[in-house]
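Please fill in the sequence for the structure shown.

STRUCTURE ENCODING:
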């Protein structure tokens, strides 16, 4: 008779933890944090600042994803699409995931402390936002916006890390990220429309259906594109950043071309490929624009 694995004695491999937190999805927020840091510095940020910004990003995101997997473990186990995730599958135990989440949170706070006093003071609020998202789909279909807020913290935090104060530009960039993430999370959640409705979970697809959800995602992405243009204006951007806005618009349009109410088979391509490229390309073009101009943003 085959015995269930003893979850408390399982020794996960490093790659199991990378899989737990979907490390490759760091591409969504990290490039915008780097862009904001370059905006704030008017060029390359100081080496130590850049290192601790990267450490803070990895720590925060790892904590948030591990916490989400812990909170959602029973939901994941019941959903055929997610039943193979590390905790339901027994690859990583709840105790191990909890230890990983706690250590990642500590790394984030340490990085905030090393950056400046304002970052340290704001770190509990940032953790509350990124961890609290995991509960929202139990009571509001606006959970997509809360996820967007969690990632929008990245560019604002990076600016504060460099300058030690807030600014209008990173807030607008953060809002662009918020609407962009909320839009693509609506598309991603189309895969679980029936499951979420059956489990009493809240999402825009579960509440309004596929067609209206796609319309909502399109509206959110139109707002995101307008905010990317506002970033261009506020940063007094040049041709490279201007081209970056156009490229971002092309990637937004592309993911809506990939998904239709009658064909959801390309949701993953729309979710990861189009959005990963949008984040990397727009941010890279923005950084090049900063290096060419050499003028700190307002």
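FILLED IN BY: designer on duty
SEQUENCE:
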């Amino acid at each position: 008779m085959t015995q269930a694995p003893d979850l408390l004695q399982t020794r996960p491999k490093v790659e199991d933890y990378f899989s737990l937190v979907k490390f490759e999805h760091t591409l969504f927020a990290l490039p915008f944090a780097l862009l904001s840091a370059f905006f704030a510095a008017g060029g390359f940020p100081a080496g130590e600042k850049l290192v601790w910004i990267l450490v803070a990003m990895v720590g925060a995101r790892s904590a948030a994803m591990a916490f989400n997997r812990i909170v959602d473990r029973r939901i994941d186990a019941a959903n055929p699409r997610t039943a193979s995730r590390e905790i339901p599958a027994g690859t990583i135990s709840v105790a191990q995931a909890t230890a990983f989440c706690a250590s990642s949170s500590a790394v984030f706070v340490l990085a905030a402390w090393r950056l400046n006093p304002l970052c340290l003071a704001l770190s509990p609020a940032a953790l509350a936002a990124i961890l609290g998202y995991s509960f929202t789909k139990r009571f509001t279909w606006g959970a997509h916006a809360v996820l967007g807020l969690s990632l929008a913290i990245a560019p604002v935090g990076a600016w504060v890390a460099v300058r030690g104060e807030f600014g209008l530009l990173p807030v607008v960039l953060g809002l662009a990220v918020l609407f962009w993430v909320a839009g693509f999370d609506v598309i991603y959640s189309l895969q679980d429309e029936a499951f979420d409705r059956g489990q009493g979970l809240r999402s825009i697809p579960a509440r309004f259906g596929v067609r209206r959800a796609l319309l909502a995602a399109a509206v959110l992405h139109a707002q995101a594109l307008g905010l990317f243009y506002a970033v261009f204006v506020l940063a007094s951007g040049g041709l490279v950043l201007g081209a970056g806005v156009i490229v971002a618009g092309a990637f937004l349009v592309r993911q809506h071309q990939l998904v239709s109410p009658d064909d959801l088979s390309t949701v993953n391509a729309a979710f990861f490929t189009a959005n990963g490229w949008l984040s990397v390309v727009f941010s890279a073009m923005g950084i090049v624009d900063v290096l060419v101009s050499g003028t700190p943003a307002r």
